[in-house]
Amino acid sequence: MSDAIRLYFFQTGRIRQKEVDIKLGYGQEDFFTPIPWFFITHPRGNVVIDGGTAVEAALDPEGHWGALINKYYPLMDPEDGCVNRLKQAGFDPADVKYVIHSHLHLDHTGACGNFPNAKHIVQRREYEWAFSADWYMKLGYVMKDILKPGIEWEFLEDEDGFDLYGDGVIQTYQSPGHSPGHQSIMVRLPNSGPILLAIDAAYTFEHWNDKCLPGALTSAIEVAASVRKLRRLAERENAMVVPGHDPDSWPSFKKAPDFYD
Ligand SMILES: [Zn+2]
């Protein structure tokens, strides 16, 4: 376990969809989005955020994701699975103390069941919606991931500003609208300063800058309000903002094995 606080950016390949499925009202052209996930070393225990797409979807897209692949197709090398990439970077999956889930869509549940000593933190509202999602979002939840055996869940009861270690380094902020229990994660680093992982509260900077809504959402009202809230937070702290699936800005961030500290 490292004593240094560091934030690593990883990626489980990409997803192919139509541009309109990311940016509401845009075109029908194929559009390729990165699938990010994050890893934080902290003296009190290492943390995975989301874990990207599960390896099973890379091995058998239709078998694992079902009919959703007709709209969202995973382009992923099984080698890109979060456990494999962490091991390659020299980390022990057994040292992961927490997995923080922004939400439980199928490109964010790759960590489920893969970290034997981790508690999985999620908003209860999100977990319950995963089991009861309305028709237009039902396929976005893969219960084979969420119900993997051995997962120890820890639920946040609409808690806003949850501070994992009480030191302000890793703090979650409710940002619903893309899904009912979505949360974004602020990581405050000693040298790099605050980095706001908006995750799917802002797929791209077009969302962040009020140019369009995301192609998948449960509430346009909440989506817009969440972006406003996160923008205020980021401006107040002068945070670097990382959108959830932005092919334009993603190449500009440092990737593992490089890191922010
Ligand atoms: Zn999502």
UniProtKB/TrEMBL annotation:
Keyword entries, A-Z: Hydrolase, Metal-binding, Zinc
Keyword Kinase part of the UniProt annotation: no
Any single Pfam family the record assigns to this protein: Lactamase_B
Family annotation (InterPro entries): AHLLactAttM (IPR054889), MBL_superfamily_lactonases (IPR051013), Metallo-B-lactamas (IPR001279), RibonucZ/Hydroxyglut_hydro (IPR036866)
Domain of life: Bacteria
Family named by the database record: Belongs to the metallo-beta-lactamase superfamily.
Protein name (database record): Glyoxylase-like metal-dependent hydrolase (Beta-lactamase superfamily II)
Species annotation: Ancylobacter vacuolatus
